[in-house]
Amino acid sequence: MLKFFKIDSKLEQFTPAIPTMLYGRDDLVKEAVSYIIENEQALLAILGPGGIGKTALTLKIKEEKVLKVKYEDRAYFIPCDILPDMASFIQGMMQCLKIPGQEGKGLREILFGYFQTNTKYTLLILDNFETTWNSKEGRIHIQWFLEKLVKFKHISFIITMRGRDIPKNIKWKEVGAESGIPPLSIVAARQMFLEIAGDKFSQSQSLEKIDELLQELDCVPLAVKLMAQRAKIPIESLLKMYRNSGTSILVEGKGVPSRWTSVECSIQISVDLLDNDTFNLLSVISYLPNGIPMWVNNMNKMLPNLNNFEASVIELLDCSLVSNSEGDLKMLAPTREFIQTKYPIGIDEVMSLEIFYLDWLKDIADGEREIQEEIQKHIMNIVKVLNSHSDSGFLTSQHIEAVSILFGMTKFYPLVIEVINNILRNGPKLSKHERNELLLKKIDMLMWNASWKEAESEIQKVREKTIENEENNARSWQGIVEIGDLQDNKNEVGNMVPKAQIKFEEMEDQWRVAQCLQRLGNIQRMQSRYSEAADMVSNAQSQFEKIGDQLGAAQCLQSLGNIHRMQGRYSEAADML
Fold it and tell me: PANTHER family this protein is in (predicted)?
């Protein structure tokens, strides 16, 4: 009898236990099982990055009752991560199927002979097939071998791989999204985290903070599992620990790390598949939180010195280190964190990105189209670039202009406040005018976000430092007015509005004068001084009409209608309302 190399014990060792619970994958299991049952021969591909749960999903599919009816005990799990070449792959398959060797016959001959005589439905699960597929001896013989096996119509296959570079000339059915198996939903990730962490932890922690941590992990199953195993300290401490130490804490036990016990080990397996020419692009994408939106159009503008970037993109997609979603290249958060630490971006690439975003922002702001949704795709990249440069302590007028453009979009205010704080803290080369302008913008945004106390504190700082600047002084009075108004401090507001009005009249700022008159009229109305209120609001209406502000004039007209209604002058009120 032909002797085999001793890999049979390893096959058992590298076959994971069937998961008792699988979170958020019911639809994928149903999709896969339906396809397998409805087709005499199933050719199922389960693709995605390391740690996304491909193996667990496959084992769950294998255990479904309807599959046990179809295949009985002829469903075989073959861990290809220990079968790095053609010879070991065939030998491993024969040992899984318990096919004995025969003197005078080669392994392929024996295997093909077996399937010719054993024609009952059989399922072969080739898990982590990228190891065998990327054999040093090349792919062509493995490709031919699989094509010959596929001709046996009673043999079905489930293949799991990192990336989309699967064996060609075989019509695979891919499960999941465009880029393969997606991360968990936040609901499924939370359920998984809480069940692993246990009841004592779950009952005492903020679900909002748990979701914040899970979102920083991008709900990647392996990362969620390993973090949950550390849930012996408060969730705030877990968040702090991850932000300080990154993926290095996502490891189980103290033994030799593996793809099942270490996020970094799982990612490194994919990185090891890359050619050297691809690492520059890998580092750049890890640096950008939004990845590269619309990469076909933007890549050569962002990185003009990167040659043959299309080949690098293909390679990164093939290894599932990035995904391509609606034309945007993105990287999962744990992968991004690990790559940034181990393969940091070069200074030349950082400068290229900065030049691109400063020019791009200015170009789209000069246009007439709606730009908020367009900026949304890039906003975290822009913030990263602006913060990185302000950290260096060197800023230009272009950086200040970029902040001013973003200031025009309320959706981004929390992020813009963060950028301004960074600039004010690290930008010693700012002129006094630039610093004051940024402070006033920050105050406006704080008030928009209803951060009254913080806004009032900033206003007092501005007034102390800019008493000699009439515009800033007037705007600071206006800020205090708005805070008092929104906090319902009517007496305080009533005293402050005239001061702001006088300042704006001196500056001939008619729009802000009209605002002050409108606000004074509303205050008089709330104090039941209707005659004075009507005069103030009428003056404001006239002022708005002179400067062509139709919205302001309409608001005043509505206020006048309310004043007349409160005076019992219903006919006049009806005309105005």
Answer: HTH-TYPE TRANSCRIPTIONAL REGULATOR RV0890C-RELATED, REGULATOR-RELATED
